[in-house]
Amino acid sequence: MRDLSLDQLRSFLTIVDLGGFSAAARHLNLSQPAVSVQIRELESRLGLRLLERLGKRAFPTAAGLELADHARALLAAGEAALAAMRRHRDGFLGKVRIGTGRATLTYLLPPVLRALRDQHPNIDVSVLTGTTLQMIEDIAANRIDIGVVTLPARHPGIEVTPIDERELVAIVPVEAGEPPPPHLGPGDLAGRPLVLEDLHSNLTTLALDWLAAGGVRPDPVLTYDSLEAVKAIVGTGLGYSILQAEAAVGGVAADRLHVRPLVPRLTRRLALAQRRDKPADRAFAIVREALLGLAAVKP
Description:
The protein has helices at 6-18, 21-28, 32-46, 62-90, 102-107, 109-119, 132-140, 186-189, 202-213, 227-235, 245-248, 282-292, and strands at residues 51-54, 57-60, 94-100, 123-129, 146-150, 158-173, 194-196, 221-223, 241-244, 257-261, 267-275. By secondary structure, it is of the alpha/beta class. The chain folds into 3 domains: 6-87, Arc Repressor Mutant, subunit A, CATH 1.10.10.10; 93-159 and 270-296, D-Maltodextrin-Binding Protein, domain 2, CATH 3.40.190; 164-268, D-Maltodextrin-Binding Protein, domain 2, CATH 3.40.190.10. Strands 3, 4, 5, 6, 9, 10 and 11 form a 7-stranded mixed beta sheet that branches. A two-stranded antiparallel sheet has the order 1-2. It has a two-stranded parallel sheet with strand order 7-8. Helix 1 (6-18) crosses helix 3, helix 2 (21-28) packs across helix 3 (32-46) and helix 6 (109-119) runs antiparallel to helix 12 (282-292). The longest helix has 29 residues, at 62-90. The protein is globular. 29% of the residues are buried.
């Protein structure tokens, strides 16, 4: 039997993780036929069927499930070998993949990333965005190394370290007549559409629970794909939003919005999430220490 190809194993594992050939091809920046050829060659080399196709989905066979465990170990060993050689070659410390929400990336992370780049140019840092649930799944699957998440975040294989607590506020449109009161409770927001960035985020759950505790169930709930879009929509008078205080200031609609604290007070708790079995190499330790400093960032 010829030696296994790491490229073929990477394609196979990506299909297992993402559930299909098309999604894997997009993730790997390959054509779907190229991914299919790699899997056919891998199955031919091993003399086993590794994946079963059901419609557009693909599922590992019993042999495929067992191979996936070995493939993760082999690919991790390959990455470790490459990282070690880069360190010998040019002082490269390693690559660290950070996961975070879009608001944290936009309003809190820039000074931390800038300091890492200036002080440790030999660390390759990449950032992916998603909800807390998505990040926990990606950390468990080793697609990212560490996440800045909004609590709660629970997974038996994930270690969570709280790092900060941030205020949530309401934004409402500037309208004719008297401005809104200095603090807003659920009753002050009743009867208006609620405008959110993501219906499935932990922040949305916090906001809906806070409203429900005050007897308010917003209808309709409108969603847009960025916080700036949310603020622009609220600025036109089409509803209100509850979001991070750091995200409420500035932007294209700043002159059309009132920002108000909430009563009772509502906060989101930020935490770092990582696999419990994550090897503590030097690059990871440096990035983790930098992220612990997010509590000191003032937007």
